[in-house]
Amino acid sequence: MDWGGLIRAISERALFYAVLGAVFFGLAIGARRMGIDLATPVLPWLNLAFLACVSLIIVEGGRQIIAAVKSKRSERQYKEMEEQDALRNIASLYPEEAAVLKSLLSKQAPRRFQVHTLSTGNALLQKGVLVAVRSVGVSGDICEVHPAIYARRDQIAPQLPDKKDGAV
């Protein structure tokens, strides 16, 4: 028997079982108070089981809340790190790549566009300046400018050289 798997499965569903037990034992205690006769030796165990279930609900609920907050915090930190990387990678662009990025940051440029595998845009995609939205097979991807860069396009675009020629 796989005891580790059994314990893991029970602990993952602990809150559910605790709520179920609290409802069951609470109804049994309520039934006793409404006049339904239960065996006297059962009553202390009902009270104890009810208190244990309520305690487990409090502990497990708190644990899940803390885990959710930590998860949200690490997601936010990852997103901030990814945004900083994309912004820093602008400095690593060759003049031709910077010119393409400038044209993509213009107000007339479409928000989404296709980047071919052998184009300058593919280098921007590899550097994290562009974000792939959908693959269109071996020919390339549907992309958009990284949201952190796009949000700051008014400050970034004037610092980039003009596009001379070349396709995205």
Average pLDDT taken over every residue: 86
Which class best fits the helix and strand makeup?
mainly alpha
The value of Rg in angstroms is 29 Å
| Order of helix and strand elements from N to C terminus | HHHHEHEEHH
Output the strand order for the largest sheet: 1-3-2
The residue ranges in which pLDDT falls below 50 over 5 or more consecutive positions are none
Instruction: Kindly state the number of beta strands.
Output: 3
Biggest sheet architecture: 3 strands, antiparallel
The DSSP helix count reads 7
What would the principal axes of the Cα set say about the shape? rod-shaped
**Span between N and C termini?**
59 Å
- How much strand content do the residues show? 5-15%
Helix share of residues? 55-70%
Number of structurally distinct domains: 2
In words, what does this structure look like?
- The protein is mainly α.
- It has 2 domains: 3-88; 93-159, Arc Repressor Mutant, subunit A (Orthogonal Bundle), CATH 1.10.10.
- The chain is 62% helix and 10% strand.
- The chain has a 3-stranded antiparallel sheet.
- The model has no long low-confidence stretch (mean pLDDT 86).
